[in-house]
From TrEMBL:
<dbReference type="Pfam" id="PF00365">
    <property type="entry name" value="PFK"/>
</dbReference>
<keyword id="KW-0324">Glycolysis</keyword>
<keyword id="KW-0460">Magnesium</keyword>
<dbReference type="GO" id="GO:0070095">
    <property type="term" value="F:fructose-6-phosphate binding"/>
</dbReference>
<dbReference type="GO" id="GO:0016020">
    <property type="term" value="C:membrane"/>
</dbReference>
<dbReference type="InterPro" id="IPR000023">
    <property type="entry name" value="Phosphofructokinase_dom"/>
</dbReference>
<dbReference type="GO" id="GO:0048029">
    <property type="term" value="F:monosaccharide binding"/>
</dbReference>
<dbReference type="GO" id="GO:0061621">
    <property type="term" value="P:canonical glycolysis"/>
</dbReference>
<keyword id="KW-0963">Cytoplasm</keyword>
<keyword id="KW-0479">Metal-binding</keyword>
<dbReference type="InterPro" id="IPR022953">
    <property type="entry name" value="ATP_PFK"/>
</dbReference>
<feature type="domain" description="Phosphofructokinase">
    <location>
        <begin position="19"/>
        <end position="198"/>
    </location>
</feature>
<dbReference type="GO" id="GO:0005524">
    <property type="term" value="F:ATP binding"/>
</dbReference>
<dbReference type="GO" id="GO:0003872">
    <property type="term" value="F:6-phosphofructokinase activity"/>
</dbReference>
<dbReference type="GO" id="GO:0042802">
    <property type="term" value="F:identical protein binding"/>
</dbReference>
<comment type="pathway">
    <text>Carbohydrate degradation; glycolysis; D-glyceraldehyde 3-phosphate and glycerone phosphate from D-glucose: step 3/4.</text>
</comment>
<dbReference type="GO" id="GO:0030388">
    <property type="term" value="P:fructose 1,6-bisphosphate metabolic process"/>
</dbReference>
């Protein structure tokens, strides 16, 4: 946990830099809190922060999908479900041409720091994008879309991945963003059913890996009942 002295040292350390945040894949509760935290911390350290709407699709399409954020851009969103900046699955980003368009949209805004909140597929895509970055910039230079000086200036792309998934199926974290909320929703619904249920009731829980979240729920519910 950062104290006030540590926070003061961080102030303006990001001046002159630009970063962007997007949410991708299936939305999950907690994504808005993550977007808010990244946005406000980026602004606090003096960086330009952009919000990319509609996930990788917005990154590929560019235009109004990539908007400069201000402190109040993320006010009053943490209590909302899903993601206020939208999320979309994007076939275009799985292609070289799609990633080329995404690279161009970042470079022309001077963005070399990208925060991706999503699941396995989203973070895998982010890693591929990072590994191809220098090659994508070189291709943009060869096609005359950006200058050589710009390619050198923005030659490195930093990626930060936040695991947003209700499935809780990603290594490196005990609880993914959204998994805890999903478990509590299940518990609330089962509790509501049990209040008046006089017979055996089967509740279907549908997730990517049903057994993981279902077993977690049954274990937690057993603790509550006993």
């Amino acid at each position: 946990i950062l104290n006030s002295v540590d926070l003061e040292k961080l102030k303006m350390t990001g001046a002159g830099r630009a970063m962007a945040v997007l949410t991708s894949g299936g939305d999950a509760q907690g994504m808005n809190a993550a977007v808010r935290a990244v946005t406000r911390m980026g602004i606090y350290v003096g960086a330009k922060v952009y919000l990319i709407h509609e996930g990788y699709q917005g990154l590929v399409d560019g235009g109004d999908n990539i908007k400069l954020a201000h402190w109040h851009s993320v006010t009053n969103i943490i209590q909302l479900g899903g993601t206020v900046i939208g999320s979309a699955r994007c076939k275009a980003f799985t292609t070289r041409e799609g990633r080329l368009a995404a690279a161009f949209n970042l470079v022309k805004r001077g963005i070399t720091n990208l925060c991706v909140c999503g699941g396995d597929g989203s973070l895998t895509g982010a890693n591929i994008f990072r590994s191809e970055w220098s090659g994508l910039l070189q291709e943009l230079v060869e096609k005359g879309r950006i200058a050589e000086t710009m390619a050198k200036q923005f030659s490195h792309l930093n990626i930060v991945g936040l695991v947003g998934s209700i499935d809780n199926d990603f290594c490196g974290t005990d609880m993914t963003i959204g998994a805890d909320s999903a478990l509590h929703r299940i518990m609330e619904i089962v509790d509501a059913i049990m209040t008046t249920a006089q017979r055996l009731v089967a509740a279907k829980i549908k997730f990517k890996h049903k057994h993981i979240i279902a077993i977690s729920h049954l274990f937690l519910h057993y603790i509550v009942l006993t």
